[in-house]
Amino acid sequence: MELNSIALKCVFFLLLHLILGVHGIVPNVTLNETCGNSSGSFRRHTKDTKCDHMHCHREYLIILAVVSAVILSTTLGVVVWLLVYKRGKKRRRSRKLYDPAASLPSWKVFTKDELRSITKNFSEGNRLVGDAKTGGTYSGVLPDGTKVAVKRLKRSSFQRKKEFYSEIRRVARLCHPNLVTVMGCCYGHGDRYIVYEFVANGPLDKWLHHIPRGGRSLDWAMRMKIATTLAQGIAFLHDKVKPQVVHRDIRASNVLLDEEFGAHLMGVGLSKFVPYEVMHERTVMAGGTYGYLAPEFVYRNELTTKSDVYSFGVLLLEIVSGRRPAQAVDSVGWQSVFEWATPLVQAHRYPELLDSHITSSSTSIIPEASTIQKVVDLVYSCTQHVPSMRPRMSHVVHQLQQLAQPSSK
Questions:
Q1: End-to-end alpha carbon distance in the chain
Q2: Parallel/antiparallel/unpaired status of strands 182-188 and 263-265
Q3: Residue ranges of the Protein kinase domain (predicted)?
Q4: pLDDT in tens, 89-135
Q5: CB 3.0–4.6 Å: which of 51, 90, 218, 335 could bond 329 by disulfide?
Q6: Euclidean distance between CA atoms 213 and 92, whole angstroms
Q7: What pLDDT score does 223 carry?
């Protein structure tokens, strides 16, 4: 046991010499004093090699203090370096926020004078169909000839410039063929504007309920294409973006159609810019119905991706039937689209659910009753009251792609 103690002491002092030598400290105790001078020091232990216990104890305390000081100073140095590094990183990040469009060459921060110029001072002739409660949308042309749509939001004293730019930056990064691209924004004295790409055929709402002059009614194949491409855009927000993005305001007027009648979803993140009282007014539609909003959001303020699935289900029934979520009926007053559709579904009278523009068109191919039934089944699957029972949007996309195949023959 005594020999083992001497051996351990030798190893300890050897390591101590190496550590203190790096820092330029020479210990009072040498290896010879500890381990002995002869080669048989581990076998022989005489009175000459034994150190005084008090002396050894004092040396141990000195060594322990020196080693502790070295470790402490090293730790403090690392902590100070980390604090300085984090502070520098925070400063660099704040500088980037000051120049909000620096990291996105395609995204521009416009001045208010530039927006006045490209929209002809927000003239009524440039006003597009939109929700007047959020300020309205205007068409415009950039100096390079690019057509844009400028969304004017209600004034807000609650949202600061940095917060607005930060949210626009996040939304502008969401790039998908079925999402309307954000091209820039403007913030000045509480006035907020978002500049979008211009989508040629405008809102789906007018094609379902107010067919433009010279325009044609949407046939079954076109409606299925709109539903499928819209579902693809929503599925991208739910499944490909991290963290997931919940749109919250999926409705016919937020779906824009391009020249080939593909759907482009706009208004991603817009709910954060709309005052609470405006969103609250949207909650209850005419006749006490809740329109596109999921019941868990209306009653418990719960908002998940399944809330978007519910809204899509309502919109899908609107696309098929041509009826708004709530519609005036002479005999009963206001009636929701589901109150109208459910008796027909229960009686298996599926062709009667179709928009009259589909059945009255001489060029439109009328789908089979079984195909209509599958679409309606998908509608009711998306609008189940229990959120967990609703399908994922990726599943909805798959179902619609399968359903669209027979209609293209």
A1: 94
A2: unpaired
A3: 123-401
A4: 766 665 544 444 444 446 789 999 999 999 999 888 888 866 555 67
A5: 335
A6: 54
A7: 95
CA-closest candidate to residue 190, choices 155, 162, 166: 155
Q: Which residues are catalytic?
A: 249
User: How deeply is 182 buried, as exposed, middle or buried, from its count of CB atoms within 10 A (0-12, 13-18, 19+)?
Assistant: buried
pLDDT at position 62: 80
The token pair at 293 is: 């909003």
Q: How far apart are CA 24 and CA 16, in angstroms?
A: 12
Res. 381 pLDDT band, cuts 50 70 90: very high
d(CA 375, CA 226): 13
The Cα–Cα gap between 177 and 231 comes to 12
Domains delineated in the chain: 2-96 (no CATH), 108-197 (3.30.200.20), 204-407 (1.10.510.10)
Ranked by mean pLDDT, the top range of 8-22, 283-297, 333-347 is 333-347
pLDDT tens column, 214-242 = 667 899 999 999 999 999 999 999 999 88
Closest CA to 185 of 175, 176, 194, 198: 194
Token pair listed for 74: 């090293």
Annotated binding site for Mg(2+): 254
> Can you read off the two tokens belonging to residue 89?
């990183």
Give the residue, 163 or 60, on which the prediction is more confident: 163
Q: Which pLDDT band, with edges at 50, 70 and 90, does 16 fall under?
A: low
d(CA 252, CA 86): 46
